[in-house]
Design goal:
Order of helices and strands: HEHHEHHEHEEHEHEEHHEEHH
Number of domains: 2
CATH topology of the largest domain: Isopropylmalate Dehydrogenase
CATH architecture of the largest domain: 3-Layer(aba) Sandwich
Strand content: 15-25%
Shape: globular
Low-confidence stretches: none
Structural class: alpha/beta
Helix content: 40-55%
Mean pLDDT: 88
CATH class of the largest domain: Alpha Beta
Distance between the termini: 49 Å
Largest sheet: 8 strands, mixed
Strand order of the largest sheet: 3-10-9-4-5-8-6-7
Number of helices: 12
Radius of gyration: 21 Å
Length: about 325
């Protein structure tokens, strides 16, 4: 029921996912009347792979996280997390209130041993058809060096397991590439990463390096990470609107736009945020994927695919193993 459009985008995305992934089973959590009406319209082979879980409560998009945690125990958001906690579901996907999801997930699932706080991570496009894992996107506004170090470990595991990158290059986002740049928090994190044999740390990168393919994983605190992510999304939308406006100026611009449209379309499809929808809340004892609240049906499908990938690669177990190896290394 979460997000700006709720079931209107979630149902079509789920139906595509079921058609594309024969072994997938989906549990819908929400008002039974809404879900049953949609389910009755589907073919029997699809109906057999769907379970409905009636949830009379709903977390509003502007609801305070602590209020949702205390008073919305029968909401669809709480139910999906409870299902993962009880091993009745392998992963959950939500497009609802981000703050409430973070708060509930932290309370219900708890963090893995050795992890202080979970992080939101997503893929961002880079030059030469590359991609980089970027975290934290806003799960934690204030992060000390130990938390940022843990983010680096978790991001490295995700790059290894999901993107199959051996020894992923891990970088810290900073105000400059020189060692003397940055605050004490960033410098201390750099020292921790440099001393670790389990992380392929390559140093600092600046904001204009995010899309440069210099690193496979870029680590920062949630405050800077969220601003950087929203700036990218806003820039892409701005560029699209400017191209549309310029192409309508006169007859000549319309002709040029018509010729150049395949090029523009290719660039747009590469950069549009929809296909990178599905930020993973990693570091928990379960798989939680957060979709944008204003995601389209196509974008929500990407979030479902991300959850499937993490289940198949057993990402929480891999993070747990990596963290244990790092802790053993540091205590030698």
């Amino acid at each position: 029921m979460g997000g700006d459009n709720g079931p209107h985008i979630i149902f079509p995305a789920a139906l595509k996912a079921l058609h594309q992934t024969p072994h997938l089973h989906i549990i819908f959590c929400g008002p039974l009347t809404v879900m049953a009406q949609w389910l009755n319209q589907q073919l029997p082979n699809i109906q057999s792979r769907i379970t409905l879980s009636d949830c009379p409560e709903n977390v509003a998009m502007d609801e305070a996280p602590t209020h949702a945690l205390r008073h919305k125990k029968n909401s669809s958001m709480r139910r999906v997390l409870d299902l993962v906690d009880k091993n009745e579901a392998d992963a959950c996907v939500s497009g609802g209130n981000t703050g409430a999801l973070l708060c509930m997930a932290y309370y219900v699932l708890k963090t893995l041993p050795g992890i202080d706080r979970p992080a939101l991570i997503t893929l961002v496009p880079t030059i030469n058809n590359g991609k980089v894992y970027f975290l934290d996107l806003g799960a934690n506004i204030n992060c000390d060096s130990e938390v940022l170090f843990q983010y680096a470990v978790m991001g490295s595991v995700l790059a290894e397991q999901i993107s199959h990158i051996k020894h992923p290059r891990v970088a810290l986002l900073n105000v400059g590439a020189e060692e003397i740049k940055g605050n004490d928090q960033v410098k201390q994190t750099a020292r921790l990463l440099t001393d670790s044999q389990n992380i392929n740390y390559i140093g600092y990168v600046e904001g204009n390096d995010i899309f440069s393919q210099k690193a496979d994983v870029i680590v920062t605190g949630g405050f800077a990470g969220n601003i950087a992510l929203k700036s990218w999304e806003g820039l892409v939308n701005f560029a699209i609107q400017e191209v549309k406006k310029a192409s309508q100026n006169n007859l000549w611009s319309k002709i040029v736009a018509k010729i150049a449209m395949p090029l523009f379309r290719g660039i747009y499809l590469r950069m549009k945020p929809d296909q990178y929808n599905g930020a993973s809340l990693i570091g928990l004892r379960g798989i939680v994927v957060k979709s944008h609240g204003n995601a389209s049906s196509e974008a929500f499908l990407y979030a479902i695919r991300e959850a499937i990938q993490q289940v198949e690669m057993q990402v929480p177990d891999k993070i747990k193993d990596k963290i244990e190896a790092v802790l053993m290394e540091r205590h030698k």
